[in-house]
């Protein structure tokens, strides 16, 4: 591992200042992706800004309109939270299925979203639920936040502070996991929202990361049943093809996981 400057700020303001003063600074949240990347010499930041002591970034609050989750909240905390289970149980189920206990107790929701791994689970939840990503300088709708493979709308000096989820009428997430990593080969999150109808988000399949399926959304908005999308076949164009699954197989899984998610909505 190469040399770098290490910062451990106590507030978001101090973290932002450290990030702005670095020539190539990186934020350290859970470290589940960043640290292995540095060890493999795939990244060589000049500075690491460790957010571990920034207590204001942790915590979960719920009200009648939504659920607010601090960026440094771990997957394990989301999975076990009574507020999440009551407001958006599908989100608690999603968090429980991430990685293994070690990953769930170290990895954070903000770190996962900021990294935007194409096989990560949280991006599908954000997109399907119509979440808002809150930063130290603005609020970004999920539809505008995920911009491509490992790419987001975050500026270099921007820090995610929280994620705000509207409470859906119904929602469910189902994935076909890699048996070793538990990353999604294909994961589908279906959410029935008040004004926005039904939203369907797919992770693990797209070459450009998470995406929505408009044809399924239209069919399910008219009839929230697995039968409504039984004849909709996802295209293999633009889907990942690797040693784990071909693009054609992932296209098939999108339909299967979507129907299972709709059935799980109840």
Low-confidence stretches: none
What structural category characterises the helix and strand content? alpha+beta
Computed CA radius of gyration, to the nearest angstrom: 18 Å
Q: Judging by the overall fold, what is the CATH architecture of the largest domain? A: 2-Layer Sandwich
H/E element sequence: EHEHEEEHHHHHHEEHEEEEEEEHH
SS strand fraction: 15-25%
Shape, per Cα inertia axes: globular
Structure description:
The chain folds into 2 domains: 5-50, Uridine Diphospho-n-acetylenolpyruvylglucosamine Reductase, domain 2, CATH 3.30.43.10; 58-265, Uridine Diphospho-n-acetylenolpyruvylglucosamine Reductase, domain 3, CATH 3.30.465. 33% of the residues lie in helices and 24% in strands. The chain has helices at 12-21, 34-39, 75-80, 82-87, 89-96, 101-106, 109-115, 122-129, 142-145, 214-222, 247-265, and strands spanning 5-7, 25-28, 47-50, 60-62, 66-70, 132-135, 139-141, 146-148, 151-152, 160-166, 170-177, 184-192, 198-203, 211-212. β12 (184-192) and β13 (198-203) form a beta hairpin. The protein is globular. The mean pLDDT is 95.
């Amino acid at each position: 591992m190469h040399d770098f400057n290490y910062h451990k700020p106590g507030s978001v303001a101090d973290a932002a200042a450290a990030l702005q003063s670095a020539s190539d600074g990186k934020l350290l949240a859970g470290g589940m992706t960043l640290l292995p990347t540095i060890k493999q010499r795939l990244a060589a930041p000049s500075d690491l800004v460790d957010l571990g002591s920034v207590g204001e970034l942790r915590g979960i609050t719920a009200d009648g309109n939504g659920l607010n989750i601090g960026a440094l909240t771990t997957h394990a905390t989301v999975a076990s939270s009574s507020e999440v289970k009551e407001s958006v149980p599908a989100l608690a189920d999603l968090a429980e299925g991430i990685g293994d206990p070690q990953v769930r107790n170290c990895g954070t929701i903000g770190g996962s979203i900021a990294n935007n791994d194409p096989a990560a689970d949280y991006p599908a939840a954000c997109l399907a639920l119509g979440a808002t990503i809150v930063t130290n300088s603005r609020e970004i709708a999920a539809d505008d936040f995920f911009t491509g493979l490992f790419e987001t709308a975050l500026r270099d000096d921007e820090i995610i502070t929280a994620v705000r989820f509207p409470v859906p009428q119904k929602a469910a997430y189902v994935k076909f996991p890699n048996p070793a990593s538990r990353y999604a080969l294909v994961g589908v999150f279906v959410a029935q929202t008040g004004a926005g109808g039904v939203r369907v988000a797919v992770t693990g399949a797209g070459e450009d990361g998470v995406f929505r399926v408009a044809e399924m959304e239209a069919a399910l908005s008219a009839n929230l049943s697995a039968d409504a999308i039984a004849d909709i076949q996802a295209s293999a164009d633009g889907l990942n093809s690797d040693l784990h699954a071909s693009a054609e197989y992932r296209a098939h899984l999108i339909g299967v996981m979507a129907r299972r998610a709709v059935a799980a909505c109840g």
